[in-house]
Amino acid sequence: MYDAPPPTANNASLFESCRHVIHGTVEPGFEEVRAAFEGNFAERGEVGAACTVVHRGRLVVDLWGGFRDPVARVPWERDTMVMVYSTTKGVAAAALVVAASCGFFSYDDPVAAHWPEFGAHGKSTITVRQLFQHEAGLPVLDGELRPEVLGDLDSIATTLAGQHPLWEPGTRHGYHMVTWGWLAAEFLRRVDPAHRTIGRFVQDEIMRPLGLQFFIGVPASEDARVASLIEPRWREVIPVLPHVPLALLAAAANPHSLWRRAVRNIRVARVTAFNDPALRRFEIPSTNGIGEPRALAVLFGELAAGGSRLGLSPPVFDEIRMTAPPLVTRDAVLKLEMAYALGFMKPVPSFSFASAAAFGSAGTGGSFAFGDPDRQLGFAYAPNQLGLYMRDDPRERALRVAAITCADHVAH
Fold it and tell me: CA 216: distance to chain centroid?
């Protein structure tokens, strides 16, 4: 809940020298990624961050550096965890594809076939595919959810089931910024024979089998290694504005827009509110995933390779990797060109983050993770200094471009 104070004149040089210390490993051929990572600290205002790249099943880049807590000058360690905002949706989408591969549901099923209450108010024909590709017309809740109710999954499920679609489902897509995670969580709880929460399912079926550390609802035992989030540098707003579409600026300025109404679904005062350990406990699968960025790269690398260790079925894998034809290219909420497949973001001309087969998930503040089956590549980056870009943060982009360039060079 703070902005990092500037170092004093007496310790400025020591602060800078420590901040620029980079740890980790880079395999031959991927040195450009380390150079980009160092450049983020030297040129792009990085405070603390980690970046991992998996190529053909090998961990070829595993880097971390800077400060986990810049106020206390606590360094970022190998096992430091950080909240990744909407990049969490990629982990939740992975849970759904694992559940689908287990035969718990089909993406063409009506959601109400598994969750009868959901069918109220004209939602009975909404398919699982439409729901998780942001086509259901449910990006906004009536009212807002205060922190004191975030742990009551039954109450949240009742609220979700009582919503009216804001457009005819299946006719357009609009980013379900906050609601998507709870819709995914409740649906998974209904179809899972063990009725596990999504946080438990992710641990049982993904993180533990892969030996990874990432949580939706982080236990108190892990608090000591969670990085402190730092407010965006608002003085950098003006340089960012030329990169923001006018339609998005208008939506952000309009208190009645879908974008503003979606943002208000959770009542938290600031983007750094999740520095409060109490908020980290709740399972908010659109937002508060916390873990080692390495876990995201390994997970997306495994999915990109076909997901055999997770029991991913070939038909589900084919659906993830195919190019998703968007019904309406411009997202009704974000006002950006977007495409989705089974809960993952897909490349579009204005954000062509990898090959057409790739799939990923971007988060507020700059985090991003993706898998590219064509390159057998898994990538993840997460900082604690939150940026102002909704996607394509310059720090992340520098690392991603370097990783893809190196992978292509090594392949040849």
Answer: 11
Residues 260 and 43: their CA atoms lie apart, in Å, by: 32
Read off the amino acid at residue 122: G
Q: What domain count does the chain have?
A: 1
Q: Residue 382: which domain range? A: 12-92+202-411
Contact assessment for residue 57 and residue 14, using Cβ atoms and an 8 Å cutoff: no
Helix, strand or coil for residue 293? helix
Tell me the per-residue pLDDT of 135-180, one tens digit each, with 9 for 90 and over.
999 999 987 777 778 889 999 999 999 999 999 999 999 999 999 9
Q: Per the domain annotation, does 5 fall within a domain?
A: no
Q: Map residue 145 onto helix, strand or coil.
A: strand
**Token code pair at residue 236:** 């950098």
What CATH number is associated with residue 218? Answer: 3.40.710.10
For the chain, give the number of residues: 412
- Check residue 87 and report its DSSP letter: G
* pTM (predicted TM-score): 0.93
Distance separating alpha carbons of residues 235 and 99, to the nearest angstrom: 44
